[in-house]
């Protein structure tokens, strides 16, 4: 399968009844500010470079962000914070991501998530996470030829990412290292070849973290700058 084929399969997935019902309910009810828009209300594919050297792994689409626009991290405050940082670090051609057709181009970066449908209260169940995991795994496999760095935003992304990489033969230590902002983990592929991958941890870009100063622009810039350096940008 190619990335385009994976995305085509993903966007018609209805495997999680609770999330299918929720994504469609949010899309019908809408937020007042967006009442004239047609919400995407489907699973959200990865966004960015199909030959990415850096992936950024979030959590799940936001109700009125990616679940509305259909583009990962686009249309909410989390995305505003992330895209501005990607632009400052030379990984995006513009600082604002508003929706399809806005001209946003990511250079060497792809944004992905371990859960592709918006969960109520941003909390997917363990079963929903397990069900969605193969989409992230397959996307990572398809990106593997060019991938050098994976940035996990928050503990859920970190654990999902390390779980996937471990199953794909990367040297993830046991017990699995715990998530921390600024964590850095250098992995080798156990096929004995020359492949290397570095995993970096950052606090998630949610307003819960960014409005309280737990994650500042300069903290995120440091992680993304490190990712760009490791990936040879
Ligand atoms: Fe399918 Fe993933 Fe959405 Fe569940 S969360 S319905 S597995 S795309």
TrEMBL record:
The keyword Metal-binding applies. Residues 45-224 form the Uracil-DNA glycosylase-like domain. One of its GO terms (biological process) is base-excision repair. GO terms for molecular function: 4 iron, 4 sulfur cluster binding; DNA-deoxyinosine glycosylase activity; metal ion binding; uracil DNA N-glycosylase activity. Coiled coil: none annotated. Pfam families: UDG. The keyword Iron applies. It comes from the Bacteria. InterPro entries: UDG_Type-4/5, UdgB-like, Uracil-DNA_glycosylase-like, Uracil-DNA_glycosylase-like_sf. SMART domains: UDG, UreE_C. Keywords: 4Fe-4S, DNA damage, DNA repair, Hydrolase, Iron, Iron-sulfur, Metal-binding. Belongs to the uracil-DNA glycosylase (UDG) superfamily. Type 5 (UDGb) family. PANTHER family: TYPE-5 URACIL-DNA GLYCOSYLASE (PTHR33693:SF3). This is Type-5 uracil-DNA glycosylase. It comes from Isoptericola sediminis.
């Amino acid at each position: 399968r190619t990335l385009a084929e994976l995305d085509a399969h993903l966007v018609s997935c209805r495997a999680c009844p609770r999330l299918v019902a929720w994504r469609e309910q949010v899309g019908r009810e809408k937020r007042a500010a967006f009442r004239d828009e047609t919400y995407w209300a489907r699973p959200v594919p990865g966004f960015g470079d199909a030959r990415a050297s850096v992936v950024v792994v979030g959590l799940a689409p936001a109700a009125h962000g990616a679940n509305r626009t259909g583009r990962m991290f686009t249309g909410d405050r989390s995305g505003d914070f992330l895209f501005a940082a990607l632009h400052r670090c030379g990984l995006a051609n513009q600082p604002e991501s508003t929706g399809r057709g806005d001209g946003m181009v990511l250079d060497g970066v792809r944004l992905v998530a371990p859960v592709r449908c918006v969960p109520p209260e941003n909390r997917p169940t363990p079963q929903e996470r397990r069900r969605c995991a193969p989409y992230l795994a397959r996307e990572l496999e398809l990106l593997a030829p060019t991938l050098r760095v994976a940035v996990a935003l928050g503990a859920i992304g970190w654990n999902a990412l390390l779980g996937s990489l471990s199953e794909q033969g990367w040297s993830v230590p046991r017990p699995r290292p715990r998530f921390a902002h600024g964590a850095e983990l250098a992995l080798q592929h156990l096929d004995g070849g020359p492949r290397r991958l570095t995993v970096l941890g950052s606090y998630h870009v949610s307003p819960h973290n960014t409005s309280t100063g737990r994650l500042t622009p300069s903290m995120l810039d440091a992680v993304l700058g490190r990712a760009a350096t490791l990936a040879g940008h």
